[in-house]
């Protein structure tokens, strides 16, 4: 089949041609935007799920919904080694520009506060050349959001920006990807700011996305975070949704799949959106003609597996040290919890596979947690952040 007309898009964060299985989240966010615009109380939103389920795609789509309603929006990706001030300042600067507030004097004041917040990242005694601001030319406003305590500063900043948005009849939405990588102080500050904004009824919301243990990260910072955010778990697609993700784009190119081919593809992908796109792209390129058959899927599966083994799985495995790789392989061999959809395993079982004491393996486990290759949803249990990673490791062995 013509590879130029191949409709599938297995890119990181790249929106697929058919965003199947996320209609409920899109409708719910429309309600949130409308309620916040009308001054109704509403919680900020947190999306959680494994890698490859489409959290970033959904985050970008939600942002597009806010933009279409005239909201000011900004997005950032959290990193373990980067404090929140600078990337958040850039995101909020963009949000203020998008908001399009008509009164220049009030916008300049808000930007001056934002500049003070961002420049405080260099420290109060930093020289002018060492200070950083996200391209803001407004005069610096001193005494607001510049105390040096990120929690105090963020509460003051978001309160001012929420007030600015309230005068427009719209709102501001900040989108944070990889939210679990925020530092403890930044998580605490963000929760406190969202709490203050919620109590004040200001039209500003935070939409975060992260790995399944993100709710535990937030809860460890502020006990009230369980009530502060609306949590939505983003999971793999059902059989009908996965079929739709494949057949709708194909139909637009006058192509199709046999029922047996769709069944084989669901068995191979497990319904994970990234895998659906990856296998769909490969089988399209290798199939001789439409409709695509189960035999075509059988031919394409080894090639799709090879590509995933290099890019999706292999690149992550290569980031681990030899000792960490031993730990990952032991996780793949340990017996998973049959009642846990994530297939978590007990740390004691991993130690048993390696014939080591659990305490001796703590450094490897902690390093893998920091690298985002595994996560701990509950004490004493761990799981892969990437679906099918255990299967990949067992096949490599």
**N to C succession of SSEs:** HEHEHHHEHEHHEHHHHHEHHEEH
Strand-pairing-aware structural class: alpha/beta
- What about the largest sheet? 5 strands, parallel
Mean pLDDT comes to 92
Termini Cα gap: 35 Å
Give the neighbour order of strands across the main sheet. 2-3-4-1-5
User: Using DSSP, what is the number of strands?
Assistant: 8
How many helical elements? 16
- CATH topology of the largest domain: the name is Rossmann fold
CATH class of the largest domain: Alpha Beta
Task: Indicate the low-confidence ranges by residue numbers.
Answer: none
Helix share of residues? 40-55%
Per the principal axes of the C-alpha atoms, what is the gross shape?
globular
Strand content: 5-15%
Q: How many domains is the backbone divided into?
A: 3
- Going by CATH, the architecture of the largest domain would be 3-Layer(aba) Sandwich
Explain this structure.
- This protein folds into three domains: 23-233, Rossmann fold; 245-317; 321-396, Orthogonal Bundle (Arc Repressor Mutant, subunit A), CATH 1.10.10.
- It has helices at residues 23-37, 55-68, 85-99, 104-119, 150-166, 184-200, 214-221, 225-228, 239-252, 259-269, 273-286, 294-318, 322-333, 347-354, 362-370, 389-396, and strands spanning 44-48, 72-77, 172-177, 204-210, 229-233, 345-346, 374-378, 381-384.
- α6 links the parallel β3 and β4 (204-210).
- 52% of the residues lie in helices and 10% in strands.
- The protein has a five-stranded parallel β-sheet, with helices on both faces. A three-stranded antiparallel β-sheet has the order 6-8-7.
- The two termini are 35 Å apart.
- The longest helix has 25 residues, at 294-318.
- The chain has 16 helices and eight strands.
- By secondary structure, the protein is an alpha/beta fold.
């Amino acid at each position: 089949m013509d590879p130029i007309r191949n409709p599938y898009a297995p890119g990181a964060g790249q929106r697929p041609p058919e965003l199947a299985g996320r209609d409920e989240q899109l409708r719910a966010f429309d309600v949130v935007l409308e309620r916040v615009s009308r001054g109704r109380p509403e919680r900020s939103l947190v999306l959680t799920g494994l890698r490859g389920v489409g959290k970033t795609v959904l985050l970008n789509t939600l942002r597009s919904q806010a933009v279409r309603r005239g909201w000011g929006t900004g997005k950032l990706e959290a990193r373990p080694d980067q404090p929140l001030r600078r990337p958040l300042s850039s995101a909020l600067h963009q949000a203020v520009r998008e908001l399009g507030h008509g009164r220049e004097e009030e916008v300049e004041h808000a930007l001056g506060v934002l500049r003070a917040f961002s420049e405080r990242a260099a420290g109060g005694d930093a020289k002018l050349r060492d200070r950083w601001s996200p391209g803001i030319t407004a005069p610096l406003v001193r005494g607001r959001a510049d105390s040096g305590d990120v929690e105090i500063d963020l509460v003051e900043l978001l309160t001012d920006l929420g007030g600015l948005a309230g005068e427009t009849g719209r709102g501001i939405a900040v989108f944070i990807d990889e939210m679990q990588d925020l530092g403890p102080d930044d998580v605490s500050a963000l929760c406190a700011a969202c709490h203050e904004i919620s109590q004040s009824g200001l039209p500003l919301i935070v939409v975060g996305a992260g790995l399944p243990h993100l709710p535990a990260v937030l809860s460890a910072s502020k006990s009230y975070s369980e009530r502060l955010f609306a949590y939505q778990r983003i999971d793999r697609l059902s059989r009908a949704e996965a079929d739709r993700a494949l057949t709708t784009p194909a139909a637009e190119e006058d192509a199709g799949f046999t029922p047996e081919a769709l069944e084989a593809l669901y068995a191979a992908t497990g319904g994970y959106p990234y895998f659906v796109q990856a296998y769909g792209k490969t089988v399209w390129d290798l199939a001789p003609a439409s409709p695509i058959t189960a035999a075509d899927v059988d031919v394409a599966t080894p090639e799709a597996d090879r590509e995933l083994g290099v890019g999706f799985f292999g690149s992550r495995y290569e980031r681990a040290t030899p000792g960490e790789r031993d730990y990952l392989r032991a996780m793949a061999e340990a017996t998973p919890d049959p009642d846990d959809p994530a297939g978590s395993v007990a740390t004691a079982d991993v130690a048993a596979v390696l014939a080591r004491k659990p305490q001796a393996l703590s450094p490897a486990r902690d390093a893998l947690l920091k690298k985002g290759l595994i996560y701990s949803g509950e004490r004493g249990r761990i799981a892969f952040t990437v679906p099918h990673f255990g299967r990949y490791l067992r096949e490599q062995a």
